[in-house]
Amino acid sequence: MGLTAALLLAISPLHLRFSQEVRFYALFVLLTLVSTELLWMAWARATIARWGMYAAVMTLAFYTHYYTALVLGFHATWVVIQWWQEHRAGVARQRGAIARPVGFIAAALIAMVAFAPWIWYAVLREKGPQSFTPPTLNLELVESVLKDYGGRGSVWWPVWGILAILGLLIHSQKRMADTILFGVWTLVPLPVVVLTDIWVHYFFDIRQLLFVLPIYLLLAALGVAAIARGLRTVGGRLSWWRQRLIEIGIIMIVGAGFVGVSLPGIKSYYNQERDDWRGIAQMLHYNTGKQDTIQLFNLEYYVDFYDHEAAARVLPYRSFKQVEEAYASGQPMWLLLTPYLEQHPEAGSIRTWVSQHPGLDFDFGAGMHLHYLQVGRDPAALWPTASRFTLPARPDVLFASRGYTFRAFGDSEDAQDAFVMAAEMTSNSSRRLILLLDAALEAHNRRDSASAFELYSRALKINPDQPAVRLHRAIALLGLGRPAEAVAELDLVLNRYHMDEYWPHRFMGDALRALNRPVEAIPHYSRALELAQDAHDLRYLIAVTYGESGQTGKVRFWLEDYLAWQPDGPLANDAQERIKQLH
């Protein structure tokens, strides 16, 4: 059953996700499993070496995540029940009634004492002001957890729950201590974790329960084995290898559903940008002066993991007024804007204020921007100071910052070059994609169609499923005088990606007109007008296109319709002149 559970864990979308996204949670899973196996080994044959290995692994687990305290409690529960069972059966004396419990207690104490310095340093500081919304323990939360365990998005998650319950019931008939361990390990963590989140005002995330997943899958594996044994009973006596084939078949069927529709999501995590709190902590550590103001909007919690000194100098956030006062003092200011800011009640005001007070923007990816500001100094004045900063071991951050700085100056060509350099220096494909799109935007705004086309093409090689990027590449193709290719690109946008919006229809009409296909262009212009009623120039354009198609009967209607909406519009004189020519 251990091999079956290991196979299920190996293909678990949840475990694969956090093996990439937040790796110490996956490490915590490994250490708790190893410590449990070492506990069983030490109980079966108590030696100092085995208890020593157990203590060492539990210490590592504690330093990986302090929910190890829960695992230690589960282990203690198992030890008590196992010792009580053996004592009742009269075999405790034969196996050392005192030595094994004492060995466990000693190993547990060693692990806890070794973890004590970190409790003093970090854990006691966890209970502080947080701006997160704590979870609510209800049936919806339980259902959400079960869906994550079974592969979110998959319809198979109830099957996994049934298999786990079946495995627990079957196993309870054989080994009571193990059954209680599995049951407690599966059921207790959710309420404990939720209550902890409520206590520290922290949000709940499924990764906090990742250490339960292996036990849940082990119970599911026991359920699979129980079904295989049931089939053997129904089908008569089967050989060992036929029984194994039945088990493998069941695992393959259920495992396919387990991964199922979650596979695209798993792939996306491998190239997803990560929050670079380490890089931000390094940036603040090496470059902030004693008089600098640091404002992370209650997110110093994350910086504190890497640099307690930098986090301690962060200005505690009380109201936005204090930010304005600190800026007015004339001292340099560091502001961090991240996607987490959207949870903040003053997020809109904060972002608006930053956009109105331009400074240097250090882009760490994943939507994390560290702004360097000082009253009375624009980006050009700040750059000589910033160019001497010690940056994290990521040259793309420096070049991306230069790109944003040149953009603020209005120097589009240099901004484009800086973004391209940053894209070439990053190893993360998602970040490279964003930087290439920043560079392409500069080329697009300068109407440099050749550069825009080349940059959009490079972006599509990274991720071809981007209808908005394909739309902009089609616009660049029109600027290059290649309407046939633009039509092919826009056809993908409209029909494959179903982007039924104003701009795709508008530019499809332009491309078809350029190919002398006005009859096909008219429906696209008409649809664009339906989607944007205030695009009055389209009324004039539809009239002209009808004229090009030879349908002069409708030209007058659309010209008069344009004049009704825009009697003094920029095309009013041309419209009136065309109406006169129709007479």
Continuous helix count: 31
Uncertain segments: none
Structural class: mainly alpha
Record the strand order, biggest sheet. Answer: 1-2-4-3
Strand tally is: 4
Largest sheet features: 4 strands, mixed
Strand composition percent:
under 5%
Mean pLDDT comes to 84
Cα-to-Cα separation, first versus last residue? 90 Å
What is the helix fraction of residues, given as a range?
55-70%
Q: Based on Cα principal axes, name the global outline.
A: globular
Rg to the nearest angstrom?
A: 32 Å
Would you give an account of this structure?
- By secondary structure, the chain is mainly alpha-helical.
- Among the domains are: 2-270, no CATH class; 273-393.
- It contains 31 helices and 4 strands.
- The protein has helices spanning 2-10, 13-20, 23-44, 48-64, 68-89, 92-95, 99-121, 139-149, 157-172, 176-187, 189-200, 213-234, 240-259, 263-271, 277-287, 300-303, 308-312, 320-328, 347-356, 379-386, 395-409, 412-425, 429-445, 449-462, 467-479, 483-496, 502-514, 518-531, 537-548, 555-565, 572-582, and strands at residues 293-295, 333-337, 360-363, 369-373.
- It has a 4-stranded mixed beta sheet.
- It is globular.
- The N and C termini lie far apart (90 Å).
What are the main properties of this structure?
31 helices; single chain; 583 residues
